[in-house]
Design goal:
This protein is α/β, with parallel strands linked by helices. Helix content is 27%, strand content 19%. It contains 14 helices and 13 strands. GO terms for molecular function: RNA binding.
Length: 425
């Protein structure tokens, strides 16, 4: 009924109604232009409970004021002294917010005259390479031999005797690992996960990684549950090693072809002293499956004090922090020294396609286009041009088809008869 009111409903209060997250699912459909919403004194427990009104397919795009006072999602953070964290998460989920819980949201901007965006033609990118070339591994402020010796010993021990790494970690060190299950665009285009040359890739399973490790993956972009955050951060060598032992076995070819790994290392401030940041990108084979995974691992190291467990066991440095990201295999081409391509060339090497006239977007669509990553904007623009979909529906179409333009257009042609007028420019 509310959706049929004229003018459209822009302000509504659902305070004191014992509302949980699932009850909000229909709101974006029936009140898409809602600007002011009060959910005070309800049962919203976590930010995830708001997914139905913050997801790409159900976002309240015009919401400017939100009240969540009296909900566990806010009050629990207040008790922990983490109100800023709560406000940051809410403004991340609702980028259009101007007022949260009756307090203004800080907006960052520049007081500079801006040219009118009306009828602006979005130019198609012409560059094929990034203006700066990819450089080889970067090591400064430390003896390269020390870095090499540490990595050789650490990964060899990690693969074969993880339990003995307990002495390499400081008593107050932290360890966490995070799983990224998204397949990179580069790897998807290359077909690395369906290639006959890599038959074991299909055998790989994320479940032991996501749920293992004595606390699970600490991918904060996939959730905001406080217990999960705390349980997946491990303090001290014993807790770190206990988590590592509970994860699948690995084999790093650290002594093999050097191009498989990229190492950057340089001094960084750490408390009142100086630490050494050591970042490693590379790959490993998962034992038992023989499939390849890519990883990124960031250490903060410090000289091992005389008499410490690390020094006693032959470590020149002690680990203060260890963050490990495991992801789909994507080859070492990402850090290959030399020119960096920013646009994929035509794989068939065929005659260039006939150029279509540049698409002119209205100001509201241009603004929406700017909210997605820059490298995805040309893809969304092409789908808009070929289908007449608006930016929101073009992005949804690409997302559902792995950001493959041809698949997205084919999918559109299959369902275009079911789409309403709101889907089009």
């Amino acid at each position: 009924m509310a959706s049929q009111l004229k003018p459209e409903v822009q302000t509504i209060s659902l305070a004191n109604n014992y509302i949980t997250g699932g009850m909000l699912a229909a709101m974006p459909r029936y009140l898409p232009r809602l600007a002011n919403l009060s959910l005070a004194n309800n049962k919203i427990r976590t930010p995830k409970d708001l997914d139905s009104i913050t997801s790409k397919k159900g976002r309240l795009e015009y919401l400017r004021e939100l009240i969540l006072v009296g909900n566990p999602v806010r009050e629990e953070e207040v008790k922990l002294g983490q109100l800023d964290r709560y406000r940051t998460e809410m403004t991340r989920r609702f980028p259009s917010l101007e007022i949260l819980d009756s307090e203004p949201v800080t907006q960052i901007g520049f007081d500079v005259p801006q040219p009118s965006m009306a009828n602006t033609v979005v130019p198609k990118p012409s560059s094929t390479t990034f203006p700066v070339e990819m450089q080889p591994s970067f090591i400064t402020g430390v003896d390269g031999a020390m870095v090499s010796n540490f990595l050789m010993r650490f990964f060899t021990t990690f693969d074969n005797q993880r339990g003995t790494l307990v002495n390499a970690y400081h008593s107050s060190s932290t360890f966490s690992y995070s799983i990224n299950t998204s397949i990179p665009q580069r790897a998807r285009i290359a077909g690395l996960h369906t290639s006959r040359d890599l038959p074991n890739q299909r055998k790989l399973d994320w479940k032991p990684w996501i749920q293992g490790g004595e606390g699970g993956s600490r991918n904060l972009s996939r959730g905001f549950v406080l217990d999960k955050q705390y349980n997946s951060l491990h303090f001290g060598g014993e807790a770190a090693v206990k988590s590592m032992i509970a994860l699948p076995g690995t084999k790093h070819d650290i002594g093999g072809p050097p191009e498989k790994f990229c190492v950057d290392s340089f001094p960084v401030p750490h408390g009142d002293s100086i630490g050494l940041l050591l970042v490693v990108h590379g790959e490993f084979v998962e034992v038992g499956v023989d499939g390849i995974r890519s990883f990124d691992r960031s250490f903060i190291l410090a000289p091992a004090p005389e008499g410490s467990a690390a020094k006693t066991h032959g470590w020149d440095v002690v680990i203060l922090s260890d963050q490990w990201i495991v992801r789909h295999y994507s080859t070492c081409d990402a850090w290959k020294p030399g020119p960096m391509k920013v646009q994929a060339s035509d794989p068939k090497g065929s005659t260039p396609a006939v150029q279509q006239p540049a698409l002119t977007l209205p100001p509201d669509q241009l603004a929406l286009l700017q909210t997605i990553p820059e490298f995805q904007q040309p893809l969304a623009l092409q789908v808009c041009q070929r289908t007449s979909l608006n930016v929101k529906f073009a992005v949804d179409c690409l997302t559902g088809n792995g950001w493959d333009i041809e698949r997205a257009v084919a999918n559109f042609n299959e369902v275009k008869g079911t789409l309403g007028r709101e889907a089009f420019l």
